């Protein structure tokens, strides 16, 4: 019984010893390098167990293996024995397990970890973190896009762990976060040494269409295009180049966003300080067209002083054309100063004011009654527009087209491009209007016809038409109408039919209407006037002589 008890105790102690000393599968154990052959290291992990590990597992990415016989290393025991009786071990898995423990601790404390970029994959790079492989997205490599990552490959540097999942074996890291943190510290230090209004030297780092970024020694400031010079700068590259050292003034510092605004023109004299004295109102100056818009053109009087010529002040005659058809960029032009607003830094200029008003010139050289010749520029429902000297137009109203008939009936006889003669009837320089008359260019037939005719005159007319209400007659080409009641003194003779077309009759002028161009004529008035004249010469009807006697005596006297 005693012997049996001793054997059982011995077996229990032996088993306990084996359980304590024999490595467990799936654990990390220490081993000793016994030999290196055929690209492998033979490692003794104790208890007469040996295993083989490829030398590449002992090498960092891109570097040779650093291992020698006798070195003590850690390996991961995957299996105690394989088909060849050897232990299945891995140094890489041991490093990975140790690395994960270390990385999880660093991740929890938000500490940086060291690693090296060793490969490129879709969307980014692979990073060795001392045994564990992490993914570095392309957007997290640097603060700015990296075109060539070659210089970064294999270089040991710090990274920040953004996310990790041990169960899935995923780790995402960032190099950009480290750079931004370092840059923020550097920016804070540099900004702390800057003050608004301070003049500093900087290096042009980048140029854009709206300005340039200037490196002030670890922190960038924006030099806006409007702060580069007092004059208009269309392209910053006109005055700056990348790598150039420039002297700038700190205009504004935003302590929260660390944004710095810089200026170059602030270090120069402001040309606006002398604008009023140098450019008095109504004075003429020569400038250069710098920019053309739909509403006018900007003219530079000197660097930093620019004025606007509004489209309405560009030409006396071209009212509805684009400014680009009057002036061109870089053209030298003479302008007049119309208004200065120093508060808004604006100068209003005039281009047409440097030239005489063409309507005033025309009025001086073409007084009313002057005959002109010009081309029909436009035809409207109310008249013609005729081109005149000085690139201006005059209008011929419908009523001034012809003496006879209606203007509406004859305007169709004119075409654009026709050369016509007209007489200046009125010039209104304030309203910029010129009235012309085509009918007056050939003289006034009415005025010529009635040259010596006045009220009470006796003239001879020709009957041209017989109507029920009277007769139409003609005198020197001018037509008139004699009403039935004016055809004779006696009512019985007031019959139109007693006249014939072509008859010549004497009539008395009762009215001269120059405005309506008409003569008032009457046979009745002539007969009454003749009777009165005969009575005055040969006697009165009150003495007993009849009208026939009186007229007979008058006729006899004429015969004698």
From TrEMBL:
Keywords: Repeat, Ribonucleoprotein, Ribosomal protein, RNA-binding. SMART domains: S1 (SM00316). Pfam families: S1. Residues 26-92, 110-176, 197-265, 282-352, 369-439, 456-524 form the S1 motif domain. Residues 534-560 are annotated as: Disordered. GO terms for cellular component: cytosolic small ribosomal subunit. InterPro entries: NA-bd_OB-fold, Ribos_protein_bS1-like, Ribosomal_bS1, Ribosomal_protein_S1-like, S1_domain. Coiled coil: none annotated. GO terms for biological process: translation. Binds mRNA; thus facilitating recognition of the initiation point. It is needed to translate mRNA with a short Shine-Dalgarno (SD) purine-rich sequence. Belongs to the bacterial ribosomal protein bS1 family. This is 30S ribosomal protein S1. It comes from Jannaschia faecimaris.
């Amino acid at each position: 019984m005693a012997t049996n008890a001793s054997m059982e105790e011995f077996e229990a102690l032996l088993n306990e010893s084996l359980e304590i000393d024999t490595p467990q599968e799936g654990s990390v154990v220490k081993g000793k390098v016994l030999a290196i052959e055929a690209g492998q290291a033979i490692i003794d992990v104790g208890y007469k167990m040996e295993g083989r590990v490829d030398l590449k597992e002992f090498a960092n990415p891109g570097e040779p293996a650093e291992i020698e016989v006798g070195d003590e290393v850690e390996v991961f025991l995957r299996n105690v024995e394989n088909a060849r009786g050897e232990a299945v071990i891995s140094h890489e898995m041991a490093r990975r397990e140790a690395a994960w423990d270390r990385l999880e601790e660093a991740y929890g404390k938000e500490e940086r970890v060291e690693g090296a970029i060793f490969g490129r994959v879709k969307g980014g790079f692979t990073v060795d973190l001392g045994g564990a492989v992490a993914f570095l997205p392309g957007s997290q490599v640097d603060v700015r896009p990296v075109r060539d990552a070659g210089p970064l490959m294999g270089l040991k540097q710090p990274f920040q762990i953004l996310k990790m999942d041990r169960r899935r074996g995923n780790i995402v890291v960032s190099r950009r976060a480290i750079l931004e943190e370092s840059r923020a510290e550097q920016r804070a230090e540099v900004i702390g040494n800057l003050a608004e209004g301070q003049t500093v030297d900087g290096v042009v780092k980048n140029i854009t269409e709206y300005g340039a970024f200037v490196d002030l020694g670890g922190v960038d400031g924006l030099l806006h295009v409007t702060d580069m010079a007092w004059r208009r700068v269309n392209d910053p590259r006109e005055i700056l180049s990348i790598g150039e050292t420039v002297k700038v003034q700190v205009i504004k510092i935003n302590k929260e966003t660390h944004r710095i605004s810089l200026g170059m023109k602030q270090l120069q004299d402001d040309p606006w300080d002398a604008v009023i004295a140098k450019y008095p109102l109504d004075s003429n100056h020569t400038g250069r067209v710098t920019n053309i818009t739909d509403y006018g053109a900007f003219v530079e009087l000197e660097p930093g002083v620019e004025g606007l010529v509004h489209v309405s002040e560009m030409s006396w005659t071209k009212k509805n054309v684009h400014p680009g058809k009057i002036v061109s960029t870089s053209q030298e032009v003479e302008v007049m100063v119309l208004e200065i607003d120093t508060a808004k830094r604006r100068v209003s200029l005039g281009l047409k004011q440097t030239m005489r008003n063409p309507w005033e010139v025309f009025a001086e050289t073409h007084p009313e009654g002057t005959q002109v010749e010009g081309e029909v520029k436009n035809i409207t429902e109310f008249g013609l527009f005729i081109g005149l000297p000085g690139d201006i137009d005059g209008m011929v109203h419908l009523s001034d087209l012809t003496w006879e008939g209606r203007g509406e009936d004859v305007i169709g006889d004119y075409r654009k491009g026709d050369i016509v003669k007209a007489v200046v009837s009125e010039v209104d320089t304030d309203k910029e209007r010129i009235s012309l008359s085509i009918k007056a260019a050939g003289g006034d037939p009415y005025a010529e016809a009635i040259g010596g005719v006045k009220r009470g005159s006796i003239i001879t007319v020709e009957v041209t038409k017989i109507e029920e209400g009277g007769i139409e007659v003609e005198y020197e080409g001018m037509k008139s109408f004699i009403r039935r009641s004016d055809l004779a003194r006696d009512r019985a003779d007031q019959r139109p039919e007693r006249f014939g077309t072509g008859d010549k009759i004497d009539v008395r002028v009762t009215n001269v209407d120059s405005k309506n161009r008409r003569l008032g004529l009457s046979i009745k008035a002539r007969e009454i006037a003749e009777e009165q004249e005969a009575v005055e010469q040969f006697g009165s009807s009150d003495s007993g002589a009849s009208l026939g006697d009186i007229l007979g005596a008058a006729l006899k006297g004429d015969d004698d």
